[in-house]
Amino acid sequence: MTDKPIEPWKTLSTRYSYQDQWLGLRSDVVVLPNGKVLDPYHTIDAPDWVNVIAITEADEIVLVEQYRHAAQRVLVELPAGNVDPGEAPEAAARRELLEETGYAEGTWHALGSLFPIAARFTNEVHAYLALDVRKIAAPAPDGSENLRLHEVPWTRLAADLHAGHRPILEAAQMSSLFLLSLFAQSSADPRISRLRL
Amino acid sequence: MTDKPIEPWKTLSTRYSYQDQWLGLRSDVVVLPNGKVLDPYHTIDAPDWVNVIAITEADEIVLVEQYRHAAQRVLVELPAGNVDPGEAPEAAARRELLEETGYAEGTWHALGSLFPIAARFTNEVHAYLALDVRKIAAPAPDGSENLRLHEVPWTRLAADLHAGHRPILEAAQMSSLFLLSLFAQSSADPRISRLRL
Q1: ipTM score for this prediction
Q2: Which of A20, A182, B85, B87 has the least C-beta neighbours within 10 A?
Q3: Chain A interface, mutation test: which of B69, B73, B77, B165, most A Cβ atoms within 10 Å?
Q4: Which residues, at least 6 apart from A20, have a Cβ–Cβ distance to it below 8 Å?
Q5: Taking the model in full, what pTM does it have?
């Protein structure tokens, strides 16, 4: 505890305990403002992520079901993925939506960016609302993705959440739905304001 | 894309690319249902985490400000931390709240558990509401924590969020506030239902 301004840590050295094309485990030696040295303090480098809340003209949310090896569960999720090097986050969001679901077009709104896990991950997760998307292609997920598409009435998702069910079980994706709910409350557009959760 | 039920991946072998007391980087060789082999597929072992939304009898939310080395930012956060081995999540939540802020007691409600990042982390994050907490001690954070305590009127936090500000910038913590908002909407207790966001 302190009443003084919080100061950043100083990094004495940086090394990668592990690094490949998917993930970097960075292990720094750091000095805290109180003089204590932490060796190592781990952070994880990963590309930025995007989550897409895509709503069809028929008021359905577009979801994908897939096996998640870390969680050891088949999960229903928002279309999501990595931002490629040099790619703008919204472009990544549009690409992932099209690849995973075949949906595109519509009106896009940036809902905000958050640190997924501020103590560990160095990246950010960007959330988008894509309103009135249309199916323009067959899904073309990459070879590691075995996806099942679900178009769920928005009112059913909202009712499930309000009944204490958790159709979506990932914290980062739930935070995107929360950003949508806050955005909806500040919108004068009835197509958006009805998306409050 | 598939219309068949989604099947889990098969794990052919598991090794740890890196492991210490804080973090394990597990690198599996897996076979997908389509026969494709992924080598490696990384997952990260970490202890479960807890987030605490603690509200005082004066209707203030108890927040902690600290430097987060991964985000490279001083952030305002919910009291939070690791679940120790053998510890129940609610006990961890009560311990972290007391250690980081000196607040305790009150009425506790479990808001639910989520996978922080379902594609990468194997752990879960558990969210709690602690209503009518009282300050019973001086904060006693561990040596790596340089914390500044903030007691913020709940109405100010809610107004900030509705105005598009982000007093809390972590996705996992925002998901806990979303779980609180959903819980509040299903509660007949006016002390809880007014916490809808």
Answers
A1: 0.95
A2: B85
A3: B69
A4: B40
A5: 0.96
